[in-house]
Amino acid sequence: MNSEERTYDEAYRVATLYYYQRLNTEHIAKEMGFSRPKVSKLLNYAREHGIVDIQVFDTRTRLSPLEEIVQARFSLKRVHIVPVPSYTGESVWLERVARYTANYLNQILVGHQVLGIAWGTTISEISMHLIPKVLIGLKVVQLNGSANTALSDNRYAADILQTFARNYQASVQLFPVPSFFDYEETKRALWRERSIQTILKQQQEADVLLYSVGAVHAGVPSRVYAGDYLEPSDLEELNRQNVVGDISTVFFRPDGSWADIPLNRRASGPPLNLYKTVDRALCVVSGSAKVHGLHAALEAGYMNELIVDEPTARSLVKAYLPEYVASDGEVALF
After folding, report:
1. Mean pLDDT of 55-79
2. In the predicted model, is pLDDT for residue 1 greater than 80?
3. 268-274-279-284 Cα dihedral, nearest 10 degrees
4. Distance CA 2, CA 211 (A)
């Protein structure tokens, strides 16, 4: 037995004693001849490698007041507001949201589904916290291209998609096209190719879509704005068009309109109407700079399920739901 197999076997035995027999770490250490720090390390290993699948079930008959406000106002099927202190900063907000999402995916994903993924900073963070689970027949499909003039080989998105596929032992369908084409006619011609049509069909047939809302000046920068995906002239055009965010590199205004934005005719992401038709359109958002884009996407119905950190959710309510804001400027929860 090699060292990895030995560690796995020890972690399995420790987890069985801890979760099934309800022994504490001191008793397990004595029984197995380990130190208590080693027992704790093996329990962490068991959780990180999918030996233990921990699920948290909310048995309340109602949501928290803040969740109720957001869900009711925007007609969402479900909303998850992740508790995190505002003073910790946006990097911590994102990490906590990513960890929550990674755990939640293990609850909702099942075998023989199609999971459509839009690459980006938020989804990359989620991929770092995935918990191994075998889902037979799961297919992971890339929603938008990621090549640009500085990175033509799709590595960034491919790494994210392949991390998801390895975690669930799923198949993966990459989308080897640019994020933005130089010419509209090039995109139209390529979209007629049968190989591309096959991928577009898989996107349309997805059971679950996992994505975020991008913002130009986010505390944790959105990849499409921080990388070499947009030229200065593109950014100027987005400003003229009053763009407040994007989903899968398709941009939209405060009223949710997107079809007549020139840059979208060169974008490889799917039409935003797709997010209104899928059974589970799961949008994951973290960061105060994304509030305006999140509000526009919510109003337009570009998601039916939302995971968001608590400070961002409160900022959303303060900015757009004045009826819930008290005289001191804080969200009033009844």
Report:
1. 83
2. no
3. 60
4. 39
> What is the tens place of the pLDDT at every residue in 217-226?
665 556 666 5
Summarize pLDDT for 187-205 with one digit per residue, the tens. Answer: 999 999 999 999 999 999 9
User: Where do we find the tokens 């079809």?
Assistant: 259
So what's the pLDDT on residue 49?
A: 85
Enclosing H/E stretch for 210: strand 208-211
Packing angle of the helix pair 36-48, 25-32 (nearest 10 deg) = 100
d(CA 290, CA 28): 46
Which own/partner contact pairs does 51-59 have at CB distance under 8 Å and 24+ positions apart? 51/8, 51/11, 51/12, 51/15, 52/15, 52/19, 53/106, 53/131, 53/133, 54/103, 55/103, 55/106, 55/107, 56/103
Do residues 180 and 227 lie in contact, with contact meaning Cβ atoms separated by under 8 Å? no
User: What is the set of domains in the chain, with CATH numbers?
Assistant: 3-48 (1.10.10), 65-324 (3.40.50.1360)
Query: Which residue from 166, 165, 113 is spatially nearest to 138, judged by alpha carbons?
Result: 113
Strand partners, 208: 115, 280
Measure the CA–CA gap between 198 and 139, rounded to whole angstroms: 14
